[in-house]
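Deliverable D5.2: sample structural annotation.
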Amino acid sequence: MSEEGRFTIHLEQQEGYQINVRFDWKRAADLLTDEPPPLGETGGPNASRLLAAAAANCLSASLLYCLSREEPPDRSLRAEATCTLIRNERKRLRIGGLEVKLIIDDALAGNQRFERCKTLFEDFCVVSASIREGIPIAVSVVDESGRLLHASD
């Protein structure tokens, strides 16, 4: 389950606000993202939805791994991720919070490891733990030749 180091994914604007995401794994399908109206056409999930999905997916995988260690039983877990959007003091839209509900079947709930796992799995979720701690983001804008046009502080 360990994945250390760095990875790079590639994004390319298609039309309007539709952006194709190409992952660094050859077998992973591309993903089309979009914004809701009035900007986009909701042709795919937007970044807020991807963040909620990433947190829920990571928590799901972490719990399954803790309980099963090997191959988890099929269709034993479902999750719901609820994202609350708020406006900050400058009236900019922000993610105000995430609620993730993991729904497990009786076999997982009755697993002998469950009592131990319920105190551990959140700490091993890379995404939700990183969000909770805050993630530094370095942003740069370059032109086609690679010339730096902007860098965040």
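Annotation notes: The chain has four helices and seven strands. The mean pLDDT is 94.
The annotation will be released with the project's public dataset once the embargo ends.
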